[in-house]
Amino acid sequence: MKNKKDVSLDDEDLIKSVLEDFKTRQQERKSFENTWQLNINFFLGNQYCYISPAGEIMETGKQYFWQEKEVYNHIANLIELRQSKLSRVRPTLTVVPFSDDERDIFCAKTSKKILKSVSHSLNISKILTQGTMWSEICGTVFYKIDWNNNLGKIIGINELGNSIKEGDVEISVVSPFEIYPDSNTYNRVEDCMSIIYARTFHKDMVKNVWGVEVDGQDIDVYSLDNLSLSGGLGYSSLSNSMAKKLKKDQVVVIEKYEKPTIEYPNGRLIIIAGDKLIYNGELPYINKEEGKRGFPFIRQTSIPTPNSFWGTSVIERCIPIQRAFNAVKNRKHEFMNRLTMGILSVEDGSIDIENLEEEGLSPGKVLIYRQGASSPKLLSSEALPIDFKNEEEALLNEFVNISGVSDLLNSSTISSGNISGVALQLMIEQDEIRLVSSADEIRDCAKEMAKQILRLYKQYAKFQHTSRIIGDNGSIELFYWSGSDISSEEVIFETENEINETLAQKRTMIFDILNSGLLNDENGKLSNTMRSKVLEQLGFGIMEVSQDMRTLQINSATKENLALIIDGDIQEPNEIDDHEIHIFEHTAFMLGSEFQKEILKNSDLKNKLMNHIRNHKKFNLITNESLKENKE
């Protein structure tokens, strides 16, 4: 990158101001950071910790050696259940043409193919799954959309002998621990005036990536390697926990993104590694509407919070219930320990106390006590109170009420079979309605992600790219494109909210439509194109590889129309063309508004297309006469 030096501050003052701003934002975000750390600990099973008044995560130990301190982790189960249901939210996106012109329609179809190809190559479904896990635990996650010049195919060699690649889009999941807004009260990324993206790297990594040598330091970073001790009487167990851990030779790399202003119309990006300035210039990506530059971040929340940049996690609401549930279970087991092991009453000096403490009351044990003294006896204990069971069931129900999700398969009402199919469907819809807000966040992120991908390709894909997708006829389609083929960035959803539709329901609906005959053509048959689409919706699209001749003929005629506008010429018809289809497509194109605009610039186009249609009609006439003679 070529640096653009700041005219109002020298490098040292600029570095100092950014570092001071970073420290201020760290302090302002400290309370949210502690909450995220506590949520992660409870999800991992370290549930005997709390946030101290000093703002640090502290752990509590046993007060007595006999105390039960086991963890019964229901929070992890709830998050995994929410995650599995939200994993169904993978919207199908399409691109709306900029206008009704033939070229704009063709470019919109190309953009849709690009999104489909990129979705498979980048595995966007997995990226959304990783991001959703962060948002469900911490409440917020971010996606960073970058252009990486080191990706893609090799297109040349530079003077130093290094490979030059075509570049490609790169999407990374960014945890909330790495994002620092200028204010925590904004509701959107676009509302921020600036955002700091801070990460730690080993000093050797900084040298390899940015070519700058920076002295490493000992820095506290969050790690999941620490272990927390829990357990009960006579045993102990280990669970993972999240805490700060000291790492050596680390360098903090700060990327400060500033919104476009009057002073900086294209915004500003400042990158600092340690105490050295790496880059100071305009925002690199034209990733917003109307060709404007903006932040390369997309925010996703689990539960949106009013007047807050950070979302809320269900874990925050379930922590008090989880603590109460652990307490009830542990006190219950302590009571049962007293019932099974017993509490022995012994007169002072009557027996050997040390031997009794070491060996206990084993079966068949002979207790020798002093003559004349009272014999040892067990203190009677009451039966286990019913209050333990009632409180335990009440807390389990409260988990469901607070989290908004439940596993209906384990419900006693359903397992007993005393419920109708309609009632079961209503229960499923009510059970999943609490997830609609989180599902909409994922859908909006996927939509914004698709828009930024198209804008980056439009900006950087100067060379011709080659991509592969499964075509409409079920075959592997290879297509060529470049940034100039992207004229529209208006992305919309093709499908409704997938959270309300299971795979079994979707397949049942498709079979009902097939049986009704709504998908048959005018001859009452299912075409190859429709059959491949049905198989694709059922999840078996790759099985259908037959070529739909009508679709191929339409695509051929469309390419001829585009060639006439772009190159000013059109090839002659040949024997393999379906002349009726070509005549129809060329006539429809000739009557369109785009062609009417083009003939105002070049009147010869009309004559060329008319001659082309006449030649098709001649071929069609000859073909029909030949078929007639063969029949006779």
What's the layout of helices and strands?
Elements: H1 11-28, H2 30-44, E1 49-51, E2 57-59, H3 75-86, E3 93-95, H4 102-121, H5 124-138, E4 140-148, E5 154-157, E6 163-165, E7 168-174, E8 179-181, E9 194-202, H6 203-210, E10 217-232, E11 235-258, E12 268-273, E13 276-281, E14 297-301, H7 314-341, E15 344-345, H8 353-359, E16 377-378, H9 386-403, H10 412-415, H11 421-432, H12 436-460, E17 465-470, E18 476-481, E19 491-493, H13 503-516, H14 528-538, H15 549-567, H16 579-590, H17 593-601, H18 604-631
Antiparallel strand pairs: 1-2, 3-19, 4-7, 4-14, 5-6, 8-9, 9-11, 10-11, 11-12, 12-13, 15-16, 17-18
Could you explain the architecture of this structure?
- With 632 residues, this protein is of the alpha+beta class.
- It has a domain at 11-69 and 126-312.
- It has 18 helices and 19 strands.
- The strands form 7 sheets. Strands 8, 9, 10, 11, 12 and 13 form a 6-stranded antiparallel β-sheet that branches. Strands 7-4-14 form a 3-stranded antiparallel β-sheet. Strands 1-2 form a two-stranded antiparallel sheet.
- Helix 15 (549-567) crosses helix 16.
- The longest helix is centred in the middle third of the chain and has 28 residues, at 314-341.
- It is elongated, with a radius of gyration of 34 Å.
- It starts with 10 loop residues before the first helix and ends with a helix.
- Residues 1-8, 412-416 and 542-547 have low confidence and may be disordered.
